[in-house]
Amino acid sequence: MKNAIIIPARLQSSRLPRKVLLDICGKSLIQRVYEKVKESKKAQRIIVATDSDEVAKVVENFGGEVFMTSDQHKSGTDRVAEVTQNLDVDFVVNVQGDEPLISPDLIDKIIEMFENDKSVLFGTAKHKISEEEANDSHIVKVVTDVEENGIYFSRSRIPFHRDGGHEYFQHIGIYGYKKEFLEIFTKLPHGKLEDMEKLEQLRAIENGFKIRVVETEYKSIGVDTEADLEKVKRIICG
């Protein structure tokens, strides 16, 4: 099966402006992400999707592949969908452009999910967390069925375990899509739950589509604030 890893990279992020070009020990954030993705053993092609000429030039200068997209997209998923429509692939993996510590092994797990089960249309990941973390509304939680399909994603603690002692899982924001499903997904109407939780993946569940979820030891560290940036610098730079 043919695959591609697509990294959406928007320059004008709201919480941390121009973050994809911020310096991390001599390399831009987007280069750090790209190089980490390159460590994947199964990725066949890696593309940065952006509407910024400045970002495109930076990526081309370090030898990366760029696809220039429309500047009208409302989400990274829409940007990924535009690129996917122009590729000869069976599925794509959407890696966030602000995760310089993304696990190559997790990328390979997502790819294997599609290779091993042709029925999978949409895939993502989860990571085990503490009960204290489960109470944090900034951490998105997920519960799955016996076949590891997502039942629900929420900013609230789910599931509620009356007697305590239950395992909780954080949703990790990496997504795999079959090409034909992604075209369908971006045309689906927004659902009430999606708008309430502000979680795009709920659109699939509300419209009757399954989301396969793979467990990983990787704990997501995205760069959304100055504090996140300093934390990542300490890890990468030592």
Your description of this structure?
Helix content is 32%, strand content 23%. The protein has 238 residues and is α/β, with parallel strands linked by helices. The model has no long low-confidence stretch (mean pLDDT 95). Strands 5-4-1-6-10-7-11 form a seven-stranded mixed sheet, sandwiched between helices. Strands 2-3 form a two-stranded antiparallel ribbon. Strands 8-9 form a two-stranded antiparallel ribbon. The chain is globular, with a radius of gyration of 17 Å. It is built from nine helices and eleven strands. The chain has a single domain (3-124, 171-215), classed as Spore Coat Polysaccharide Biosynthesis Protein SpsA, Chain A, CATH 3.90.550.10.
| CATH architecture identity | Alpha-Beta Complex
Radius of gyration: 17 Å
Contiguous low-pLDDT stretches (5 residues minimum) are none
State the name of the first-level CATH class: Alpha Beta
Q: Into which percentage range does the β-strand content fall?
A: 15-25%
Helix content: 25-40%
CATH homologous superfamily caption:
Spore Coat Polysaccharide Biosynthesis Protein SpsA, Chain A
Global shape: globular
